[in-house]
Fold this protein.
Amino acid sequence: MDKFSYIANADPAYIDSLYRSYAKDPQSVDEEWGKFFAGFDFAQTDFSSNGSTHLDADEFKVYNLILAFREKGHLIADTNPIRPRKNRNAQLSLQELGFTEKDLDRKFYAGKFIGMPDATLGKIIDWLQKVYCSSMGFEYDYIIDPIEKEWWRSRIEGGKDHIDFSADKKKHILDKLNHTVVFEQFLDKKYIGQKRFSLEGGENTIPALDAIINKGSELGVEEFVFGMAHRGRLNVLANIMGKTYEHIFNEFEGNIVPDLTMGDGDVKYHLGYSSIVNTRAGKPVHLKLTPNPSHLEAVNPVLQGFVRAKGDILYETDHSRILPVTIHGDAAVAGQGVVYEVLQMSGLSGYRVGGTIHFVINNQIGFTTDFDDARTGNYCT
């Protein structure tokens, strides 16, 4: 729908019926109509009894402040526990947004755009900082598709992505983290000096993958196919794929069971694995970790081809039933061209797989390179 084509030659009675529907439930009308009616309501609002044009201008400044946090809040989000965020010139200070501390106690109707009509500026900013600048950052303002963009905004601001986990779920996350940490500590003490490409520093990968599997299964995914490099691979095999500690330790000891490696004798952090595990809801799902060579990120097109073929044949082109998950290091995403070559194929009819989850582990340093010397963009993605 281009610009305001939806109001050209429109029937007033039809517009009135749409507005009545919008007044009851803003989500019941097309997004473009929703924007039109929101603007209509905003324009009709009496911001002050004396009709101050200065106050009207400040209302629009608050609206622009909300847009600024949506667009650039991720640049100052507290996402790095190791060191302070680099200054990305987000321009989100009170002064840069056109206000002073004296304005913090003033109420603004523009807070309606985040569900807080007549809230003080201080409360509006506190809410925006909590949503967009806490331990999670959301970069979505670049999305062109208005429906997709609005889906993200409603999810983020609706609180569904800021979940207060139940005690049971917190215990489950802690249990996965404990298994992850103890596994790495044991390998470090038992097999000193042997190559293992530890997951230390990125331990939250395991509970994150566990959450992807459980939520995906709830949504109808029957099979998950993982592609990843060496780092953390043994931990994923043990604590996600269900490969037994005995088999993994045998590989360290040199007592490899031929049936498990097809007799190839490859190193332990190259090997793939397939299994069936039960989710927390007791539902069985198929898991596959594709084999991986020493050529960093070369597994990406292999993973996509495998998922496309299996989705076409086994799942009768219903690609919602099989989900590819690619695990990267941040330096590899920026430095290996094959990552973006595969991304460019994602929307092509001959190659699309219905979507891939890309899980990027921030290594803080890529082999020997600090991120300031590794990429030009704000993020490797």
